[in-house]
Write a structure and sequence with these properties.
Layout lengths: L1 H17 L10 E2 L3 H4 L5 E6 L3 E9 L2 E4 L5 E2 L4 E2 L5 E5 L8 E10 L15 E5 L12 E2 L8 E8 L2 E17 L2 E4 L11 E4 L6 E12 L2 E6 L3 H11 L16 E3 L4 E4 L2
C-alpha cells in the first residue's frame, strides 16, 4: 500500500513541478436547464439502497459504468443487492430522463476494496430494461488521446445531489500503474463519474473517478484505467451464469501513508 501511494505521490509532484501552468482548471458549472444538460443525459445518479449514491454513465443501452466501491453496503461490509440499485439517467431537479433498476452487476475481479490500487475500481451495472430513446444515448469509451492533458468531468455530489455539474477543463497531472492523477474537482457522490476527453470528436469516456485526496497541499483526484478492464468485465457479463461478483471486504474511510498522501472515496 505504501509503495503504491508513494508512486502516485511522486508522479503528481513531478508532473506539477514540470507543468505548473496546468494547475487548476475551469470551475464547476451546474447544469440547471435542459440546454445545459443536452448531450449528457446519459450521465445519471446511482442510488444504492437509500444509503448512498454515486455517479454513473451509460456505455450501452443496458449498461452503466461506475466505480466498483459504489456497490458495497459499507455498513454490512458486503456487496449491495441488485434490487437495491437504481439508475436515474439525466437526474435534474427531481426528475430523470429515464428510471431503471439493476438486473445484475459486476465489480472488476481484480478490485480489492481495502487495497491502494485504484486502476480497476470499476463496475458495470446491467439494467433491468434497456434505455432506448433519442435523448439518453450511450457514450463512446476509449483511450485518452496521445499526450492529451485536458479532460472534463460530469458528476453529482453530496452538495449538488439534485443536479449534475460539469467541469469541462481539468487536467491529467500524471499516471502510474494505470491510475490517472487529476486536478478535477470531485466530492462525495462523484465516485464513478465519467472522465471525458473532449479533444477529438464527441465526448469520449477515458476514465472513471475513484477517489479524492491530498498530496501535501495539492488537492487531487484519482481515475481508473478503463479500456482493458472494461473489456474484461463485458466478457464476463456475456456469460449468463455470472450474477454479482466482487470483493466483500471494505477499506477504511481513508488511507494515509508516510508519503503524505491521503485518499478517500468521493
Amino acid at each position: 500500500m505504501i509503495k503504491t501511494i508513494s508512486l502516485i505521490a511522486a508522479a503528481v509532484l513531478a508532473a506539477a513541478a514540470a507543468a505548473p501552468a496546468l494547475a487548476g482548471g475551469s470551475g464547476l458549472e451546474t447544469m440547471v436547464t435542459a440546454d445545459d444538460s443536452r448531450g449528457f443525459e446519459g450521465v445519471g445518479r446511482i442510488n444504492v439502497g437509500g444509503r448512498s449514491f454515486c455517479t454513473g454513465a451509460l456505455v450501452a443501452d443496458n449498461l452503466v459504468l461506475t466505480a466498483g466501491h459504489c456497490l458495497y453496503d459499507h455498513d454490512a461490509g458486503t456487496l449491495a443487492r441488485p434490487d437495491e440499485v437504481e439508475f436515474l439517467a439525466g437526474w435534474r431537479g427531481g426528475r430523470a430522463a429515464a428510471y431503471r433498476g439493476a438486473r445484475r452487476f459486476i465489480v472488476h475481479p481484480g478490485y480489492v476494496a481495502n487495497g491502494a490500487d485504484r486502476s480497476v475500481d470499476l463496475a458495470l451495472i446491467e439494467l433491468d430494461r434497456p434505455i432506448r430513446n433519442t435523448t439518453v444515448l450511450p457514450f463512446e469509451v476509449g483511450a485518452r488521446s496521445f499526450l492529451a492533458r485536458d479532460v472534463g468531468v460530469v458528476s453529482y455530489a453530496h452538495d449538488r445531489a439534485e443536479m449534475p455539474s460539469m467541469q469541462n477543463i481539468c487536467h491529467v497531472l500524471g499516471k502510474t500503474k494505470g491510475t490517472l492523477v487529476l486536478d478535477c474537482d470531485v466530492d462525495f457522490g462523484s465516485s464513478g463519474a465519467p472522465v471525458f476527453d473532449f479533444s477529438d470528436g464527441p465526448p469520449r469516456i477515458v476514465s472513471v473517478v475513484s477517489a479524492k485526496g491530498m498530496i501535501g497541499d495539492l488537492e487531487v483526484s484519482l481515475g481508473t484505467s478503463l479500456v482493458e478492464p472494461l473489456g474484461e468485465m463485458r466478457t464476463l457479463l456475456e456469460d449468463e451464469a455470472v450474477g454479482i461478483f466482487g470483493q466483500n471486504d471494505l477499506a477504511p474511510a481513508g488511507m494515509a501513508t508516510a508519503s503524505g498522501a491521503k485518499f478517500v472515496r468521493p
